[in-house]
Design goal:
Blueprint (H helix, E strand, L loop, with lengths): L4 E10 L2 E11 L4 E5 L6 H9 L7 E8 L2 E2 L7 E4 L11 H11 L4 H14 L15 H14 L9 E5 L7 H18 L2 E5 L5 H4 L4 E6 L3 E7 H10 L11 H8 L7 H24 L19 H18 L1 H22 L10 H42 L5 H31 L5 H17 L1
Parallel strand pairs: 3-8, 3-9, 6-7, 7-8
Antiparallel strand pairs: 1-2, 1-4, 4-5, 9-10
């Protein structure tokens, strides 16, 4: 009972329209609640509202709680898995879990033990020493589940595990394995597990303990035991005549709107309104959720900035060292660019005294050289940030660290390679063009410009 997750009058509004209509319900501990509905019905919005991670300009109203406090990813009382959770491809599966556990506040030894236990739990013990990039889509979904659990507060357990379409992109066998894993975790950890599912096949539907059905417009038309779902709609006059039809497919078809058939659109909307009104009426007669909402907990995960900085620096260093092909390609490209500059400008002064023309050539060479190095460094930074944006957003939502800490760690770890590339460029240009300045001064100047160019 203590781990049940309740919501009352939960709704979401954004850009002047309702994305999720007001609803009341419960996700019971130890049970898997499947959120069903056609595309665009608001399944992802519903999960984000439960987790309290809605993006602007979306606004949530209503209450979400358990008897022991509020539900929130930032407070460590909920774990949320997005529809497509990316990972750092250079890291090993085991390392990915260890970093997730350590960033949440565990000591190094505790993080290793937690990672090993979770690898066993999700069936990835044999893949611990493999790179994430070499794992299958199904293994990555199980890894995402493990990472969400590893990110819980030390000594605490999430009251809700919220998963957005965990079966997307998986074959039938892998999809069923992931759903079975979620069911086992809900039962084994005695927490509420809520998963949105898109067209689940019959075998997956049988894994569900409870279902919540969403119709277009964010209308909740059913929330209860999966065994009672067909009977509920049958009572409204919508019975499934063919006993062999998957109940999930039948209900999703029932609440879908065929926009390609204009005369049918009106009938579809009327049918959905009947189902939504019937469920609202039933909820009004149900007083099981007429309980006092507990006071909101003021506890929020604290960002241990110094510790997070060292962990992020360590993780970023591993990424750079293992991305050898990119590093080698960058150095080769830098050397090639330096040769182009050297061939174009040639031996300045012919080795003699400077002339007006040679001085102008030197200014042009140095100006374009430092600009090229600065832009090469910035291009790598932009590429890195674009690839890591989704991961950083997920970790920041959980308040594992701040944006400034992440940027500083990236600056520190990328600095040596930026400087090395600039030094290589300057050394080649200095040798070919015969610059009069001391070699050390030229190399240092180019290195500083490259570093400052990245972080300006």
């Amino acid at each position: 009972m203590r781990s049940h997750v309740y919501w009352r009058d939960l709704s979401v509004v954004g850009s002047g329209r309702a994305l999720l209509q007001s609803s009341t319900g419960v996700a019971k501990a130890g049970r898997l609640l499947g959120v069903l509905g056609p595309s665009g019905a608001g399944k992802s919005t519903f999960l984000s509202a439960l987790a309290d991670v809605l993006d602007e300009p979306l606004q949530r109203t209503g209450h979400v709680w358990s008897p022991t406090g509020t539900i929130s990813v930032a407070k460590g009382t909920a774990a949320l898995l997005a529809q497509d959770d990316p990972f750092f491809p250079e890291l090993m599966v085991g390392e990915t879990l260890q970093f997730a556990a350590t960033l949440s506040g565990r000591l190094a030894k505790e993080a290793v033990e937690e990672a090993e236990a979770l690898l066993q739990r999700v069936g990835l013990a044999g893949a611990a020493s493999r790179r994430v990039s070499s794992t299958t889509k199904g293994e990555q979904r199980r890894l995402a589940v493990a990472c969400a659990l590893a990110g819980e507060l030390p000594g605490a357990r999430s009251r809700a595990l919220l998963v957005d379409e965990p079966t997307t992109g998986l074959d039938a066998f892998q999809a069923q394995r992931v759903v079975e894993l979620l069911k086992e975790l809900a039962l084994g950890r005695n927490c509420a597990c809520v998963a949105s599912l898109h067209q689940p096949r019959a075998a997956i539907f049988r894994c569900l303990d409870d279902t919540l059905v969403l119709a277009p417009g964010g209308h909740v038309v059913f929330c209860g035991s999966a065994d009672d779902m067909s009977e509920h709609f049958c009572g409204l006059g919508y019975s499934c005549a063919d006993q062999g039809v998957n109940p999930a497919e039948f209900v999703i078809d029932l609440v879908s709107i065929d926009y390609e058939n204009l005369p049918q659109v009106v009938q579809d909307k009327q049918r959905i309104e009947v189902c939504a009104a019937a469920w609202r009426c039933k909820c009004c007669q149900d007083d099981t959720l007429d309980m006092e909402i507990p006071r909101s907990s003021s506890f929020v995960k604290r960002r241990a900035s110094v510790r997070a900085f060292f962990l992020l620096t360590q993780r970023s260093s591993i990424q750079i060292m293992r991305d050898r092909m990119t590093n080698v390609f960058r150095l080769v490209a830098t050397a090639g660019l330096a040769l182009v500059f050297g061939v174009h400008f040639g031996k300045l002064d012919g080795g003699g005294l400077p002339t007006a023309r040679s001085v102008a050539a030197r200014i042009c060479l140095l100006s374009f050289g430092v600009i090229a190095m600065a832009f090469l460094a910035m291009a790598r930074a932009v590429d890195r940030f674009a690839k890591e944006r989704a991961i950083v957003k997920r970790e920041r939502l959980a308040r594992l660290y701040g944006g400034g800490v992440y940027l500083l760690s990236k600056a520190v770890t990328e600095l040596p390679l930026d400087a090395l590339s600039a030094v290589l460029f300057a050394a080649i240009v200095h040798e070919i063009c015969g610059l009069h300045a001391r070699r050390e001064a030229v190399l240092l100047s180019f290195a500083l410009v490259a570093v400052l160019g990245r972080h300006s």
